[in-house]
């Protein structure tokens, strides 16, 4: 395929097979949604899991209560925008599990109005301060996965990682990493960034045994959609089809274990379908679970916002 480097597949073929059974993982954002489903699947396969999140939904709380020994689930309250707290979760995982084999910086948000390109810092809706020099949505969706991957690689190197003692990092991209969306440009920018970041680390797999891959989910029925009415407006329930968090979790485990999904792979997940996203000449997402029928209906709202606060025609200036 166009995105794969010569010799990489041969090198991977000589590496030690990887199984999640008996391993230990850190997952951010596992208090709900896709990351919760991933944590549940790993635990069912005999893998210890540290859940790093701000809070737990009832199903995640039950997961902790049901997995107190082997495999073991542990909760570490974590703000993923705080680098010291990200470092702390590695210390907590090491304390409980001894070693860490799998890291998933999965926490993410979908451009809520409080950190959104169309609601500039300093406007009434935004919580991003004009003095902070940062957008929370990029801190969560892009900077946090990059920093956690950096910390994971450092931890792996200190624990004698090699092709015979492989380790894994799995990130969550999106079909937004291949497409455009006027409604959520910062989210789209972050997911394009994740794809490029993952592909840039592809050579770590063959040389060091550190595989960094990503899944790119389509329209997944999780609280990221269902608890945000402003996003649900994009969905045409009569036509659009949801994929499930469980389908994404299965694809994530494939990215960890499957020999042919070498480092740098981005695996797209729709309804009852997965495919590798190529770096060059990729046809783009299509089929069940990949589209929302009313996406462009939100564009008029965006142009309405440009008449308001923060954009030169309203009260506040950028």
UniProtKB/TrEMBL annotation:
Gene3D superfamilies the record matches: NAD(P)-binding Rossmann-like Domain (3.40.50.720)
Example of a GO cellular component annotation carried by this entry: cytoplasm
PROSITE patterns: ADH_SHORT
Family: Belongs to the short-chain dehydrogenases/reductases (SDR) family.
Name recorded for this polypeptide: NAD(P)-binding protein
Pfam families: adh_short (PF00106)
This protein's record includes keyword NADP: yes
Keyword hit for Oxidoreductase: yes
Any one Gene Ontology molecular-function term assigned to this protein's record: oxidoreductase activity
Protein keywords: NADP, Oxidoreductase
Protein's organism: Bimuria novae-zelandiae CBS 107.79
């Amino acid at each position: 395929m166009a995105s794969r480097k010569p010799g990489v597949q041969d090198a991977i073929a000589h590496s030690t097979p990887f199984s999640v059974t008996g391993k230990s993982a850190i997952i951010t954002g596992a208090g709900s949604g896709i990351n919760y489903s991933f944590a549940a699947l790993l635990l069912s396969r005999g893998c210890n899991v540290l859940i790093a999140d701000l809070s737990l939904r009832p199903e995640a709380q039950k997961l902790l209560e049901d997995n107190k020994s082997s495999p073991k689930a542990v909760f570490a309250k974590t703000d993923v925008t705080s680098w010291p707290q990200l470092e702390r979760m590695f210390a907590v995982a090491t304390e409980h599990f001894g070693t860490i084999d799998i890291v998933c910086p999965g926490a993410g948000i979908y451009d809520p109005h409080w950190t959104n390109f169309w609601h500039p810092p300093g406007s009434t809706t935004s919580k991003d301060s004009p003095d902070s020099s940062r957008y929370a949505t990029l801190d969560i969706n892009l900077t946090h996965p990059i920093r956690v991957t950096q910390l994971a690689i450092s931890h792996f190197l200190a624990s004698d990682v090699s092709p015979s003692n492989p380790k894994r990092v799995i990130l969550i991209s999106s079909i937004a990493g291949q497409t455009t969306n006027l409604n959520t440009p910062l989210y789209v920018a972050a997911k394009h960034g994740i794809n490029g970041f993952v592909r840039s680390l592809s050579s770590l797999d063959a040389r060091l045994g550190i595989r960094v891959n990503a899944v790119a989910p389509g329209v997944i029925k999780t609280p990221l959609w269902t608890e945000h009415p402003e996003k649900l407006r994009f969905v045409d329930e009569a036509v659009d089809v949801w994929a499930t968090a469980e389908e994404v979790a299965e694809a994530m485990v494939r990215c960890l274990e499957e020999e042919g999904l070498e480092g740098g792979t981005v695996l797209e997940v729709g309804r009852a379908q997965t495919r590798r996203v190529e770096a060059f000449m990729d046809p783009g997402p299509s089929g069940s679970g990949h589209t929302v029928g009313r996406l462009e209906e939100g564009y008029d709202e965006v142009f309405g916002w440009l008449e308001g606060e923060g954009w030169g025609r309203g009260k506040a200036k950028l």
